Amino acid sequence: MTDTPLPYPDPALGDGQVGLRRWRESDVECIRLAGTDPRITAATTVPVEGTPEEAIAFIRRQWSRADEREGVSLAVVDVDDDRAVGLVWVALRPQQHVGGLGYWVVPPARGRGVATAAVRLVVPWALEALHLQRLEAWVEPDNLASQRTLLSAGFALEGRLRSILTLGGRPSDALVFSVVGPGA
């Protein structure tokens, strides 16, 4: 085991419209907007309509994830103005060479394919840079938008885990989607 922090994409990832980069303290508006969405706050540590100080604390927690080798959290940005509009998180699972994927997009940026573009950008980078053979995402069965995102980004539906999640204090099933790297 090494104490070296996990890497960030260098250079930042982008497709001409959407980019992925390290979080900045100036991204507090993105965190504020995310905190207005009950679905995001139920499943994450985003502060509910938090203060700027709470948003900065959230951003600093994202940085600590790479430092502590838990995974890498990236801001999803609109490349035209570098404004953060979402998050992509690749967690290292306990199983060797397996990662977990999480993501969200703030309500004003939805419906434009931002999440799909972000997932498409992060997958090849994560498989290579984090030495993963498998990247999986768990999605609530009623979250059809997230299911469409994953299928559009090349993930395959594998099955259902019953009562594996607790969201907003209630148990929830999860649909498991995955993508595997070359040679896996």
From TrEMBL:
N-acetyltransferase domain ranges (all copies): 38-182
A Pfam family of this chain: Acetyltransf_3
Chain segments annotated as transmembrane: none
Residue ranges of coiled coil: none
Superkingdom, natural source: Bacteria
Gene3D superfamilies: 3.40.630.30
Xref: PANTHER family: ACETYLTRANSFERASE (PTHR43441:SF10), RIBOSOMAL-PROTEIN-SERINE ACETYLTRANSFERASE (PTHR43441)
Protein's recorded name: GNAT family N-acetyltransferase
Species this protein is from: Terrabacter carboxydivorans
